[in-house]
Amino acid sequence: MDSILKKGVLLVSVTGIMTAFPMVVHAADIDDTQNIPAAESTQILEDCYTSDKTISVKNHLVPEQKGEYSDMAFANVQSFYIRSEPTTDSEWVGKLYPDYAAKITGPVGEWTKVESGNVTGYVYSRYITVGNEAQKKAEELVQNNDTGNAEDAFTYAESREEEAARLQKEQEEQKAQAAGNGQAIVDYACQFIGNPYVWGGTSLTNGADCSGFVQSVFAHFGIALPRTTWDMENAGTAVSYDQAVAGDIILYNGHVGIYMGNGQIVNAINSAKGIGILPATYTNIVTVRRLI
């Protein structure tokens, strides 16, 4: 049997196999080393005529056996949205972060439908790892997990509502922590009540002016402040007076004090009164600054 005849027989064989077993590409099976797009099937046959290489048909069929995690996807960028519809104009319903897991529930095209945690929606397919690479990533995460339990090894998407609740909780925790640290600052500052006021001074025991007093108190906690009240007006973060907590500083025209809570400040008042306590609203407030 000559070469042309051999190739003809191979062509008939390949055609028969492809007719009996039409190629099906599953969303989770897309992998350049195992599958071939339908558009390239003609090229496979043409290769029979132009090459003497042996062509294995099984290399061009989707494998029937799938890995345990073959329907999974993993985020491969810093963070991105899961959207309600397969378009960037649609509302976002959740977020995925690096290596976060999702289950593929639709074809892998430009957009892929997924489920992750409490979120169902569409992700841009460039941002996810699928197929064999996803299988490897899943196995790696399970292996590196102490329990070896897949449910513990994978982290899933955070819904829009879950993110809002988390951020609110973090904000409250930070506020509580700031209040706790702020009270420590107030308690420290109050130790020096009764000590003298000295223009240009920064000594908490021998004498300080208003900005020197505040600067030295915060320096004790590792917080560096400018020397003058005018420069302190830009320190930290501005908050409104009704949001002030212990440890914030309140600035006035040419004066500054440390907010104690309950509408009072501890401050270096003047040469007659020294370091003492005043009402926080004894005069017009320029700004309230949060430093911790």
TrEMBL record:
Keywords recorded for this protein, A-Z: Hydrolase, Protease, Signal, Thiol protease
Q: Which residues form the SH3b domain?
A: 70-132
Q: Tell me the GO BP annotations in alphabetical order.
A: proteolysis
Q: Which domain of life is it from?
A: Bacteria
Q: GO molecular-function annotation terms?
A: cysteine-type peptidase activity
Q: Name one Pfam family in it.
A: SH3_3
Q: Give the UniProt family note.
A: Belongs to the peptidase C40 family.
What's the protein here called? Uncharacterized protein
**Can you name the source organism?**
Dorea longicatena
